[in-house]
Amino acid sequence: MICGKISEMLRRQKKHISFHTPGHKRAGADITELSYSDNLFSPHGVIKEAEEEIAEKLGSDRTFFLTDGSTSGVHAMLYALKEKGIERIALSPFSHPSVKGGCRLLGLGCEFFPARMRAGIPQQPSREEIGTALERADALLLTSPDYYGFFPELAFAKELCARENKPFVIDGAHGSHLHFGEHYAGNYADMWADGAHKSLPAFTQGAAVSAKTSAWSDLLGEGVRLFHTTSPSYPILASVENAFLFPRNEKIEAAAIRFKSDTGAVKNEDWSKLLYYYGNDAEKAQSYFESRGVYPEFNDGNYLMFYLSPCTKESDLKRLGKLLKKYPARCQKSGERILQKECGKFDRVKYLPLFEAVGRVCAEEAGIFPPSLPVVTRGELITQEAAARLERAVHVFGLKDGKIAVYTERK
Q: Distance (Å, rounded) from C-alpha 380 to C-alpha 364?
């Protein structure tokens, strides 16, 4: 059993009568800032020691634990950039809502890469696209890996940003399990966020954000204090520390790579993400697996994603494999397209039923959750396909009572 410094502190605590929060009054692991438990806002004891230990493991100058997901870490990174004088950031239109929301909150401009899709999968930017966008921006923000298991050209991006003397930050929320190897965000970025709960054995909302050098650590710390909750969960803090101490499981990594080849999964680059194309049959396929006790990470209307971690059992992979033989994936559609946006500025917004909005200009991005990617973005023409995907999805964002926001007039 992994037992980090915070877990050990919680294990050693004495039974006592609680005249402190939380209101359940059970003096167990779920405590508040007591005399022995340290303070996440100004750590000086066990939390400080745990963060320093994990920072050394991740190769950072400072690592800050988060108990409200990597969203607050993304916002803290954007704050640090803003305080350094950054005004415009080059990023993907398929970035997580926390990235675009943070830019709006802090008044940062966005220089988007082209929104390319191949076989229904959002594409990472090419070298040329990164270079062109960075010419018109002051910093670069990439998602690595993305939600479909692909990496951007990290070494190229690092070299380019160094040459241009522009900061490079990474939303690595789906890549915490990579901290053992070459694709880890911390090997390339000035600052990066880790969603530990996504692919390591941490409780939901357990995350971390790190700065590579002292030049960014103080500003990042200011951002963390601004955006992080003032009531952190000690069980989540302990789970974050323990997650990064969890040993690498090379056996399951190798098994996953073989499994992809044997079952016709999409050829992606991240061992932890098993992706299968079902097209319009995706909802039926999801029901088939779930009715047999196997739940995928997401159904985006085209693909089912089965998400692994170092804790995945080989016996569970075998069970999935048997079901995939009975309900195999389809062949991927070919072809690439660039999502088009209408030029000009618009005014006046109203909400329309999805299929009435086809052909109109979207006023607020909407998509499927998870993976929290937009099916249609602000300024983009709403297609019949996009409306159908949103109509079929169980969990969506950006809609209001099943209706989508559209512009009605140009300014």
A: 10
Tokens read off for 54: 């994990």
Residue 391, burial from CB neighbour count under 10 angstroms (0-12, 13-18, 19+): middle
pLDDT in tens, the chain (411 residues): 788 999 999 998 878 888 899 999 876 889 889 888 999 989 999 999 999 999 999 999 999 999 999 999 999 999 999 999 999 999 999 999 999 999 999 999 999 999 998 998 999 999 999 999 999 999 999 999 999 999 999 999 999 999 999 999 999 999 999 999 999 999 999 999 999 999 999 999 999 999 999 999 999 999 999 999 999 999 999 999 999 999 999 999 999 999 999 999 999 999 999 999 999 899 999 999 999 999 999 999 899 999 999 999 999 999 999 999 999 999 887 777 777 666 566 678 999 999 999 999 999 889 998 888 888 888 888 999 899 989 988 899 999 999 999 998 765
Query: Whole-angstrom Cα distance, residue 351 to residue 400?
Result: 8
Give the DSSP per-residue string, 118-158: ETTEEPPPPHHHHHHHHHT-SEEEEESS-TTS----HHHHH
What is the pTM for the complete model shown? Answer: 0.92
Instruction: For residue 351, count other CB atoms closer than 10 A to its CB.
Output: 16
Helices H / strands E in the chain, number of each: 13, 19
Q: Which secondary-structure segment (H or E) carries 315?
A: helix 314-326
Q: Are 196 and 243 in contact (CB under 8 A)?
A: yes
Q: Using alpha carbons, select from 370, 217, 361 the residue that is nearest to residue 297.
A: 370
- For the chain, report the end-to-end CA distance as a whole number of angstroms: 62
Structure tokens at 104: 């709006």
3-state secondary structure of 318: helix
Cβ-based neighbours of 186, under 8 Å, separated by 6 or more? 58, 59, 60, 172, 179, 192, 210, 212
H or E element in which residue 191 lies: strand 191-194
Q: Are strands 336-338 and 109-112 parallel, antiparallel or unpaired?
A: unpaired
Q: Where do we find the tokens 């299929």?
A: 355
